[in-house]
Write a structure and sequence with these properties.
Order of helices and strands: EEEEEEEH
Number of strands: 7
Shape: elongated
Structural class: mainly beta
Helix content: under 10%
Strand content: over 45%
Oligomer: single chain
Radius of gyration: 28 Å
């Protein structure tokens, strides 16, 4: 076998997903309205904002949201809305990390799979505050440069030289996509 017939390997540097993680959490916040609440009429979360940063073995999601609580007071004779801004830091561990990635090229992102949502609101036993239980979930990714190895055939691959590939019709039933509605959104699918 001549040296030109041998198979060679090459290292290619490419950007790839080099780490992933996901975390679901339930947290409880305590909000003290200006009046002692009698009952809770509604609780919701608005203005959620967050960003992702690399931290140790995971990715930190740093964010804020506002809690609004509609409540009654004075024995259900009056109502008011209490508002409180919440800051949080959620460490999402990476369940997979490519050990060969270049750390200087890391880019991290977070996606709120489940926006912070109030699942329970109740007046505390003392009657002076409201306990809010909030669920939230994040999926994170780390993209970085890494090396992949590919096999190189110096003389090409003879099995494919005489082949003719038709990429014009790639659907399995032979049809085309003329009947699809281009205005259809992802939510309607």
């Amino acid at each position: 076998m001549a040296i030109t017939d041998r198979h060679h390997w090459r290292e290619i540097i490419t950007k790839a997903v080099c780490g992933k993680g996901r975390k679901f959490s339930v947290v409880t916040h305590k909000v003290t309205p200006p009046h002692n609440p009698t009952s809770i009429l509604g609780a919701w979360i608005i203005n959620h904002q967050y960003e992702a940063v690399r931290a140790g073995d995971g990715i930190e999601v740093i964010g804020t949201y506002d809690i609004n609580i509609w409540y009654s007071y004075s024995n259900n004779s009056q109502t008011d809305v209490a508002k409180e801004s919440i800051s949080y830091v959620e460490l999402v561990p990476l369940s997979y990390v490519d050990p060969r990635h270049r750390t200087s090229t890391e880019e991290v992102t977070a996606e709120s799979v489940q926006e912070p949502n109030c699942v329970e609101a109740s007046v505390s036993a003392s009657g002076t505050s409201v306990s809010i239980r909030v669920e939230r979930e994040f999926a994170v990714e780390m993209v970085a440069e890494t090396k992949v190895f590919v096999r190189v055939h110096p003389n090409g691959v003879p099995d494919y030289e005489d082949k003719d590939f038709d990429f014009a019709n790639t659907s399995s039933d032979g049809g085309d996509y003329d009947d699809l509605d281009p205005e259809l959104s992802d939510d309607e699918v």
